[in-house]
Amino acid sequence: MAKTGFSFSCPTKVVFGVDTHRQLPSLVKERGAARVFLVVDPALVQSQIVQAISSGLSDDGISFEVFAEGTPDPEDVAVRLAFARCQAHGAEAMVAIGGGSTIDLAKAVAILMTNGGEIADYEGIDKFGIPPLPLIAVPTTAGTGSEVSGACVITDTSRDVKMAIRHATYCPAQVAILDPLAVASMPAHVAAYAGIDAFVHAFESYLSKLANPFSDAVNIHAMKLISGSIREFVADRKNTQAALDMLSGSSMAALSFGVTGLGNVHCMALPLGGLFHVPHGLANAVCLPVVAEFNLSARQERYAHVAEILNAGGTGQSEQARAQGAVEAIGGICRDLGIPERLRDVGVTEDALDELARRSYAADYNRWNPRYTTEEEFRELFRRIY
Fold first, then answer.
1. pLDDT grade, residue 46 (50/70/90)?
2. CA 187, 188, 191, 196 torsion-angle sign
């Protein structure tokens, strides 16, 4: 647990529940906006949630321009294109309907609309000081938590690197609408990858060197909600209670990791996305079981508590046995959801393992990961997963 002072805040207004998307026009007007730039996942243009929101905006006399040309891993090229369109429309606010990639693209455009320049200018922490254009996010995956997180991730195509633009106050959306209708049409495999990503956020934040009493409370409940609902949700995305649990758990975990940082799972997933364009949630899911086992020795007591959350390990067992039960239970979730077990199964080539290890070590997640990890240890982890 963090031994120094810490802060914990939630600058995002979260609107939660069935049919809460109907509140969007009034939320736009509360921000003094009459012209909106609507960033939509290309696969969702004809979806029920997009049609319902578009109709609501039209009925309330709000002018909107739709941008649906993003990619699964948002690139700086798409940011430039969307920024030009947003300027041309004269947008006064933004709405994002989609998963983390769509919301991150909208965040980047919102930053440029008030700060100007190129999105690469703002890589790092607190590199801009003017509040972005108001953003209302409607997540259609229960996973990234981008709607409340203090970061957006954009690929720099010139370097094949995923840039993290971080600002705890200005990067989160002003409003997040968590409506089960928004996730009802998500494909099962996307629900699985996104759900594991959300679990990893809570799990790694709970294990972080910077964990604190506030983050612990949020992460423990997030893990309970996600682990208790993920199988049912992947099996039926129209399961309203499971969807609400997943949306809640996802946002809770994202609130926390902005304070505590994450660990080796995310550290290794970033170069997998940058070099091989493995979807972020899938990259996390493939790495999770092996990394969970690697970190156990540094946080055995916390792993034992995770086992309790996951209903793994019996009473009377030693702490070590219960901690190992958490690792086994995590592997079981991944198997039940059909997560690929090997990097070779998701397009990664063996000749890249050294570069993946180099990039992982250089990212310096040792600031947060509970077990210090050398470049050679990263190399061995990648080999074990390959």
1. very high
2. negative
Instruction: State yes or no: pLDDT of 14 exceeds 80.
Output: yes
Q: How far apart are CA 326 and CA 36, in angstroms?
A: 46
The whole domain housing 148 covers 13-183
Last residue within a domain, chosen from 183, 198, 219:
183
Question: What is the domain count for the chain?
Answer: 2
Tallying the residues shown for the chain, one arrives at 386
Number of other CB atoms surrounding residue 159 within 10 Å: 11
One domain, residues 119 and 198 = no
Same domain, 83 and 174: yes
pLDDT at 1 over 70: no
Q: 235-271 pLDDT, tens per residue?
A: 999 999 999 999 999 999 998 988 899 999 999 999 9
Q: Which helix (H) or strand (E) holds 135?
A: strand 135-139
Residue at which a domain ends, from 183, 201, 236? 183
Check: CB of residue 217 under 8 Å from CB of residue 259.
no
Residue 7 lies in a domain: no
Reply yes or no on whether the pLDDT at 4 is more than 70: no
